[in-house]
Specification:
The complex is a heterodimer of chains A (158) and B (720).
Chain A lengths: L1 E7 L2 E7 L5 H8 L18 E4 L2 E4 L12 E3 L12 H8 L9 H14 L5 H8 L9 H15 L5
Parallel strand pairs in A: 1-5
Antiparallel strand pairs in A: 1-2, 3-4, 3-5
Helix pairs in contact in A: 2-5
Chain B lengths: L18 H11 L2 E6 L8 H4 L11 E5 L5 E5 L8 H13 L6 E5 L16 H28 L6 E4 L2 E4 L2 E7 H5 L3 E5 L24 H6 L14 E5 L8 E6 L1 H5 L4 E5 L2 E6 L2 H9 L2 E5 L10 H7 L5 E6 L2 H7 L2 E9 L11 E7 L2 E6 L4 H12 L6 E4 L14 H13 L3 E4 L2 H7 L6 E9 L5 E9 L14 E7 L4 E2 L9 E2 L7 H18 L4 H8 L3 H14 L12 E8 L2 E11 L6 E11 L6 H20 L5 E2 L2 E2 L17 E6 L18 H13 L5 E2 L3 H11 L1
Parallel strand pairs in B: 1-8, 3-4, 9-19, 15-31, 17-18, 21-22, 27-30
Antiparallel strand pairs in B: 1-2, 2-3, 5-6, 6-7, 9-12, 10-13, 11-12, 14-22, 15-20, 16-17, 16-19, 20-21, 23-24, 25-26, 26-27, 28-29
Helix pairs in contact in B: 3-4, 11-12, 14-18, 17-18
The chains are: A alpha+beta (158), B alpha+beta (720).
Chain lengths: 158, 720
């Protein structure tokens, strides 16, 4: 057991747990944030994606000790003051989801991309998103939504 | 609205309602204006419905206009992602003249919704839609009568807008649905066919709407079965055999028992470890030492096809006409081929998950399922509880496609909740999901057919093993034909039959296999006839709807007739599923070195009758085409006897962003025809359209799905 502190959706968090536990389970069980989903537990599907220090990571394969002192953003922290993030807006507007299970991971993976590359080409979006799986096959819409959000966010500091 | 919209819709009153059931039910429901109705999606016997807790048995859905003016529709159907909660709400809102936002769809809660058999088979809009609209029209009629009384004007002088009824001659004389419903309990039973809106009167039906459940899904607020939390709950991991039909010989759980907070439960074959953290439960499971007796593997993913044909039950004639012997004499060229496809997994993003809680003599189960009332019965049986003491709640479901009809995980959670006295979550790992999935069956199709010198198909002898009859029927004008199906797509597992594990429905069950075989074979005949594949089909079709979609697809694509292989990599295929006609044209590229197929463009023309939500229908077509790339190109389960070799997305590869072709959709305008299925039809052509395009590109015919890089390279080698 160890004490681990990090910033979660803008708030300081301090918890005592085994640092080897995966961030996904700490989020979902200990912290009650169920937006990050379990899809495979092996980092092969992306349903558990969260953003750590501005990079999209697979929370099912990230020991919680690795986020100590870092800034973690989950889907619950993306909307600010009740206003949806442009990516969330775009997913709604473009119907970029069906069952919705992969959606938080899709949005956060795209968020991680746009933080580092605000105006990606379609090829760059495809390459960055390729490891996130969607069985309902909303892929075409998701690509449209990410492009639209990037356009919307142009010049806006996130 | 045309009369034929009501075909197959069950409006008849099934007898006097049970007065006690009705009274108890109304009390629980509270006041308002209620219209009961029956979804005619199957000939459902009364005995089957007797799972409904305290429900009268003469209806299986109802709507209510509450005292707050909100409209609620209660049904045991569930939302799996295909969007019926939006399109059904559109239908209801339009008939009632209320805004889409004022409609609540209450789905899949067995205590609040009447019995329903489940959500599958693209039946929700087709069979639920018409009676739902009729119920809306009935409720509107009741409200108009009440308003006439309240406003003291005849009904003819009234008009409705957004839930407000006006006197046409004096607009200030008005009353809202909420005011009319206040303090009243009025129940109506839909017995006859009320007058529905005509197409020209639609305000909401036929217009594109985005999903009504998108905001909770993009904010993480949408709760799935695995997201439900109850005080004191435990997460269970269950010991699984390494292969189907393996028997546990020895087990040692002592290491797991030493882990702090871990509870080990054994009840017959069920051995589980439970902990308040799911990851600790997983660690504990890994410490269990178990030895199983695994039966010798007699069949694998290569030998399965001969095994299936050898062990096939007698076939059923799906359809026949003319005389095959006569047809064969008319043939100038006879073509005889066989086609195969492998087992395919559902691979849903949400694994089977359930949370069960038992309080006193009552069990509540939150389950990811397509059939909440089936789960209710299974849980009641496993717990030895009366049906009325089990409630199944269906939260958001992370994909179904036929894979969540069985609900083993809900039974496991319920048993463990009973054994531990605590709420228990069972969420399958990805490996468990691949192991216990009810796969789309491996199948074989054998076709012998002939063409006359004129290019007309003169006979067609079709035999399908284990894909089933759906989509097996050919729709060309062939004078001498016979279609036989041996074995359906369900069963297997412990229940005997030649499959080493369970098989079941998979998006458009059977039809993907049948359409792959039929449309590949039609292309081979076109080649033998020396004709362009579109022209060959048009020559041999008489069904106007099929001709319509084929011409529409060809026009949209810019099809230029040529004899295959033209080197362009273009292919065509047609199909019928769930009452909907589809024609696809695709363009592919193949990397000769790797054998990898890239689909560049797919055009789909679809005739689905009245399109309720063009946006939703379009998305289903896109989803079908993209998902269909998987079974066409990569998806197949590898196995040795009862051992499933594929355990994760590393070896079982499903479609990705980089695969997505340019997709163009044409909907045939058919507003006067009844709405047909939309969730499945556009997936059925994907195998054949790609196989035909590959042939057109390089003259290599592939007879087995999926068309993996290895099989493409084998084909190229064969040709060389």
């Amino acid at each position: 057991m160890e004490n681990i502190s990090f910033t979660l959706n803008g708030k300081s968090i301090r918890l005592t747990t085994n640092g080897e536990r995966m961030l996904l389970w700490v989020l979902r069980t200990d912290l009650g944030l169920t937006g990050a989903k379990f899809g495979c537990g092996l980092g092969l599907c992306g349903a558990c994606t969260v953003v750590v220090d501005k990079k999209a990571v697979r929370s099912c394969a990230t020991p919680v000790k690795d986020v100590a002192g870092k800034e973690v953003v989950t889907i619950e922290g993306l909307a600010r003051n009740g206003k949806l993030h442009p990516l969330q807006e775009a997913f709604v507007k473009h119907d970029a989801l069906q069952c919705g299970f992969c959606t938080p991971g899709m949005i956060l993976n795209a968020y991680g991309l746009l933080l580092n590359n605000p105006q990606p080409t379609r090829e760059e979006i495809i390459q960055h998103m390729d490891g996130n799986l969607c069985r309902c096959a909303a892929h075409a819409r998701i690509l449209q939504a990410i492009e639209a959000a990037a356009k919307e966010m142009k010049g806006v500091k996130q | 609205m045309n009369e034929h919209e009501y075909e197959n819709v069950d409006f008849h009153d099934t007898g006097a309602p049970d007065p006690l059931g009705r009274r108890e039910f109304l009390k629980r429901l509270g006041g308002g204006i209620i219209v009961f109705f029956t979804i005619g999606d199957a000939s459902v016997s009364l005995a089957q419905r007797r799972g409904g807790r305290g429900y009268p048995e003469d209806f299986n859905a109802y709507l209510r206009i509450g005292e707050d003016g909100r409209v609620s529709c209660f049904t045991g159907k569930v939302e799996l992602g295909q969007g019926p909660s939006t399109s059904l709400a559109q239908m209801l809102a339009d008939e009632l003249d209320v805004s889409l936002e004022s409609v609540d769809m209450v789905l899949g809660d067995t205590d609040r919704c009447p019995w329903d058999m489940g959500t599958f088979g693209s039946m929700t809009i087709r069979f639920f839609g018409p009676p739902l609209r009729a119920a809306g029209a009935e409720a509107r009629g009741v409200l108009l009568e009440l308003a006439a009384e309240s406003l003291k004007v005849p009904v003819e002088r009234l008009t409705v807008k957004n839930g407000v009824i006006f006197d046409k001659e004096q607009k200030k004389n008005k009353v809202t649905y909420a005011q009319l419903a206040k303090g009243k309990t009025i129940e109506r039973r839909l017995k006859q066919k009320p007058e529905l809106k005509r197409v020209s009167e639609f305000n909401i039906i036929g217009k594109p709407y985005t999903r009504t459940d998108a905001v909770p899904k993009v904010t993480g607020k949408a709760l799935y079965a695995g997201d439900i939390r109850e005080d004191g709950m435990l997460y269970a991991r269950i010991l699984r055999p390494p292969a189907h039909r393996a028997k546990l010989n020895r087990v040692d759980t002592s290491e797991a028992e030493k882990i702090e907070g871990v509870q080990v439960v054994r009840d017959g074959e069920l051995i589980a470890v439970l902990h308040k953290s799911p990851d600790v439960a997983t660690k504990a499971l890994e410490t269990i030492k178990a030895q199983f007796d695994v039966p010798e593997a007699k069949v694998d993913d290569k030998s399965i096809f001969d095994h299936l044909v050898k062990n096939a039950p007698p076939g059923n004639v799906v359809r026949s006409g003319g005389d095959l012997g006569t047809g064969e004499k008319l043939a100038k060229t006879v073509v005889e081929e066989s086609y195969r496809n492998s087992y395919v997994a559902h691979a849903l993003m949400e694994t089977h998950t359930a949370l069960a809680k038992i309080e006193g003599d009552k069990a509540t189960v939150w389950a990811s399922t397509q059939a909440p009332f089936t789960v209710k019965g299974q849980v009641a049986g496993a717990l030895d509880f009366p049906q009325e003491k089990v409630r199944v709640i269906t939260p958001f479901v992370g994909g179904g496609f036929g894979g969540k009809v069985a609900a083993q995980q809900a039974v496991e959670a319920a048993r463990l909740a009973k054994l531990t006295g605590k709420p228990v979550q069972v969420a399958w790992s990805r490996e468990e999901e691949f192991f216990y999935d009810s796969f789309r069956p491996a199948a074989v199709v054998k076709i012998k057919s002939g063409i006359a010198a004129s290019g007309e198909i003169v006979f067609w002898d079709y035999m399908v093993y284990f894909a089933g009859s759906r989509g097996a029927e050919q729709f060309y004008k062939i004078p001498h034909h016979r279609t036989v199906a041996s074995g359906e797509w369900g069963g297997g597992g412990g229940g005997g039959g030649p499959h080493p594990f369970a098989v079941g429905p998979w998006r458009a069950p059977g039809n993907n296999t049948n359409t792959f075989a039929r449309e590949s074979h039609v292309d081979i005949m076109a080649l033998k006839a020396g004709m362009d594949p579109v022209e060959f089909r048009l020559k041999n079709l008489s069904d106007a709807r099929m001709i319509g979609v084929l011409k529409a697809a060809a026009e949209k694509f810019g099809w230029k007739p040529a004899k295959a292989p033209s080197g362009r990599g273009v292919g065509v295929a047609c199909g019928i599923d769930s009452g909907t006609y589809v024609a696809h044209i695709a363009e592919v590229a193949v990397d000769d070195r790797t054998g990898r197929v890239q689909v560049k463009r797919v055009v789909c023309a679809q005739d689905m009758g009245l399109v309720i939500n063009p946006e939703g229908a379009q998305i289903q077509v896109e989803g079908c085409i993209t998902m269909g790339l998987g079974y066409a190109l990569t998806e197949e389960i590898h196995f040795k006897g009862g051992e499933i070799v594929d355990k994760d997305f590393g070896t079982y590869v499903i479609p990705r962003f980089s695969w997505v072709p340019k997709i163009e959709t044409v909907f045939i305008k058919a507003d006067d025809a009844p709405a047909q299925g939309g969730g499945e039809p556009a997936i059925v052509c994907m195998g054949a359209v790609i196989a035909n395009a590959i042939y057109d590109l390089m003259g290599v015919r592939l007879y087995q799905l999926p068309m993996t890089p290895e099989r493409v390279k084998e084909g190229l080698a064969r040709k060389a």
